[in-house]
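Submission checklist for the structure archive. All mandatory fields must be present; incomplete records are returned to the submitter.

[x] Identifier: ABC transporter ATP-binding protein
[x] Organism: Kribbella jiaozuonensis
[x] Residue count: 311
[x] Sequence attached
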Amino acid sequence: MLEATDLHVEFSGRGGRRARAVDGVNLAIGAGEIVALVGESGCGKTTLARTLLGLERPTAGQIVYDGTPLSYSGRALKAFRRQVQLVLQDPMGSLNPRHTVHEAVAEGPRIHNLPDEESVVSSALSRAGLRPPERFLHRYPHELSGGQRQRVVIAGALALDPKVLIADEPVASLDASVRGEILSLILRLRDDLGLSALVVTHDLGLAWNIADRVAVMYLGRIVESGPTEAILTNPQHPYTQALLSVLPDSPQRIILTGEPPDPTQIPTGCRFHPRCQLIPTTPDTTACTSKPLPILPTTTHPQVACHLATS
C-alpha cells in the first residue's frame, strides 16, 4: 500500500553541515499489515513518518502509494492524505480545547467536502469505540479521559475512510490500563476495515503485541527488519538486542553508553560501532569502524545490517 524507496531526508545543520535525518531507507507497508518502526528518540522515526505522510519532501528517493509515486502538487497531496492519516501521540496537544468532539472529528470531512457530516462523525466515533456517539458529540477534550481523547483522535482519522494509519507513539501518553484498549482497537480496525498501519514507537513490547513486522531504526537507517516473532525472539543486531534487554522478562540488561551520534557527523563504517556492546570483546573491529554497510532492501524476510551478525 505504502512504500519508501531509497529515501533520504536532510536538514541544514550547524556550521553549514547537513543533518541526515533519514539516510537511505527502504520500507513497505502491505495491505492489512501492521508494521512497527522502532528506535530511540532522535533516530529519525518521526521524520520518516512525516515524509511518508507527505509533510516533508525527501532529498532523494520516493514515496509510492498503491503503485503510484507521490506527487507534491496541492491537489494530489489532498487526495493522498485522505487515504493516509496520522494519529499523534498526545491527544491533549492535538485536540483544540475550544472544539467539541463533533467539531474535532468533522474537521477532516469538512476539508474534503464529504456529504452527510452527522452520519460520518457518528460512524467514526462508533468505530473508534465511543458508543453511543451521542454521549460524546458535545463534550470538550478536558471532559474526557486520556483513552477517550485518543479514541477521538483516531475517530478523526477514520472519518475519512483511510487505507493506511500512521500512528506516532499512539499510547505513550496513556496509563498502562488504557494502552491495551487502544492497541486492541488498532488490531480490530485492521481486522474489520482492512486498514494498514505504521506504528512508530520506542517500545519493543508494544511491537510484540501489535505488529506483523518490525523495522529497527538507528541514526537514520533501518538496521534490522523482519517478521515480529523472528526479530524479537532471535535479534541479530546488537542494537536490537540492547532495546529488547530492557523488557521485564529479559535475562540480562544491556546498557548502551552515550546518546545516538549527531546526524551531521555519522560515524564511518557501522554507524552503531561507537556504542556497540560487542566491540570491546571483538578481536578485529576494522570492518566495524571503516567498512560501510549496504542499505537494507525492501523484503519481508529477516535481515540485518551488521558486520558481526553476518560474519
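[x] Structure attached
Curator remark: The two ends are 34 Å apart (CA to CA). The mean pLDDT is 92.
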